[in-house]
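G., the chain you wanted modeled:
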Amino acid sequence: MNEKNYEYLRNQVKYTGFGEGLDSELKEKMQQQTSTFTLNHEVLYGADRAKATLSFKKSDQSEMFFFNSYKVDLQKDNSKESLGQTFYINKGSNITMKEAYNLMEGRAVNKELTNKEGQLYNSWLQMDFKKTDSNGNFKLNQYHQNYGYDLEASLRKLPIKELETPKYKEDLMDSLKRGNLQSATFLKDGEEVKQFIEVNPQFKTMNVYDTNMKRIDNIEAKVEKQSEGEKASVKQSNKKQGASADNEEPDIPKEVKKRVRKQSNSI
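Predicted structure as tokens:
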């Protein structure tokens, strides 16, 4: 067995999100020198069970093995049928196990990818459950850097307390880039309210959910509308020399009755 090859694969497995628990089995399978072999990994995300099958293949020209792909079968706690998707290992930034789970939950993940010319580019990835390829995998839509989605600018439209502290802001953005449904503290009428957010690169916005995990629509429009209303109130107040302006509160958006799947939200 090639020790350097083993160390390389060991680190590749580890940093793709499978930890170090497969090290011994990996070495054992490589020592057997079979042309192909698989390793199994299982993890719980809340009540969701994700089973991964890692596929390795030996080179036809040497004793070197390659980590080619891993297939995830996701069993939701409220579903009898599992969802399957294969993720391929590339030379660049691989999709980790947790990112794979987030993609299969419908959320977007930000990655540094490599084009055919070997050049790096940044892109948001999101699974399209309406389209599959010849291998039965769901298509991964890309919203690359030229698409124009700015995560930080999108966050600035929301009254989130964590944005006031550079370290908390950085942690929040990093978690969202990994595709997590992240908790955040919203400042509303002088009070702190816990809500949940996720990235929506297709529409260049954020999805916001309340503590009951129900979607809140047009949250950004509501915040902007409130801000504009406050400015208009000040101008009108100055014109009337202190007379109170007849301002109306913006309409509270209706909650969409679609429940969001629960999952771990740790950064």
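The two ends are 38 Å apart (CA to CA).

Shout if anything looks off.
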